Amino acid sequence: MKKLIALFAVSAVATTSAMAGVAITGTADVSYDDNGASPSATSYDADLLFTGTTGSTTVTIGMDVDGSSATSDASSITAATMATTIGPITVAADMLDEISVEASTVSGGQRAETVDTGVTISLAAPIGDATVGVDNSGNVTISGTWSGITMSHTSKSAGDTTTASGSIAGMDVSVTNKAGATTWSLGTTVSGVALTLASSQLVTATFGLAGNTMVVSAVPAVTAHVGTVADNDWDTASKAAYSTVAISRALTSGATLAATYSTHDDSLTLKASVAF
């Protein structure tokens, strides 16, 4: 009997040790949308994320558990990745070839299905205050932080990308130049109101504190775009500018209740969500 108790104790300890490196997180929500003049509708979503860590190796498995898979009504795997480091070398593997083609022909999303799996091996070497990295596709990245400004430059055949971000006089600034096209965003707080402005002309203002906020957004108009196979995108329909007001309140039950009004279609959406 003592041996049996001892064996059970060892087994229990081993099981606890194995689970210690596994984290399970998830989200779930239900929504009601009155859709303005159109018929009202309800929707729901639930997802789980399993993250296992041992030393410098991490494995991540994502699941869509509400049956909204594009190919079936059953639960589906949405992510399967592994990353590990061996000295200055980082190995990352994407093991899931998910369906990434855009189902809608007017949303501007991905037009043709592509293979999403692959293994990337990158080498990062510190040189002074900068880090130089190269991956197996030949992309070379130089990154570092100087005087509080973080900068990164990636040289690749599809077009170089340079990013810079930092806080200047209480204002958060981020600038990205990709293949000659520049985008930027600014963020600051004035009298307790958090304001953001982006080069896309999107403006948001957040009032209140965490757990009880109101966000007012001015969304810019969308210009019609004719997609091509070469650009791997669909046509994008034009859309007039509109505004949204979203109010979010954390409940004592642990859930969050949010109400969003949009002038685009004069609709009100109510959403109850929980994250763990």
Plain-language structure description:
This protein is mainly beta and 276 residues long. The protein contains 1 helix and 18 strands. The chain has an 18-stranded antiparallel barrel. It is globular.
Stretches where pLDDT falls below 50 for ≥5 residues? 1-17
**Shape estimate:** globular
Pattern of helices and strands: HEEEEEEEEEEEEEEEEEE
Number of strands: 18
Report the β-strand fraction as a percent range: over 45%
Q: Which sheet architecture does the biggest sheet show?
A: 18 strands, antiparallel, barrel
**Total helical elements:** 1
The class by helix and strand makeup works out as mainly beta
Q: How would you state the average pLDDT, rounded?
A: 84
Report the C-alpha radius of gyration, rounded.
24 Å
Terminal residue distance: 41 Å
Percent helix = under 10%
Structure in a nutshell:
The protein is built from one helix and 18 strands. The chain has an 18-stranded antiparallel barrel. The protein has 276 residues and is mostly beta strands.
Blueprint of the fold:
Elements: H1 2-20, E1 22-33, E2 41-54, E3 57-64, E4 76-86, E5 89-94, E6 118-127, E7 130-134, E8 140-146, E9 149-155, E10 161-168, E11 171-178, E12 181-190, E13 193-198, E14 203-209, E15 212-219, E16 242-250, E17 256-262, E18 267-275
Antiparallel strand pairs: 1-2, 1-18, 2-3, 3-4, 4-5, 5-6, 6-7, 7-8, 8-9, 9-10, 10-11, 11-12, 12-13, 13-14, 14-15, 15-16, 16-17, 17-18
Task: Give a quick set of tags describing it.
276 residues; 18 strands; 18-stranded antiparallel barrel; 55% strand; mainly beta; disordered N terminus
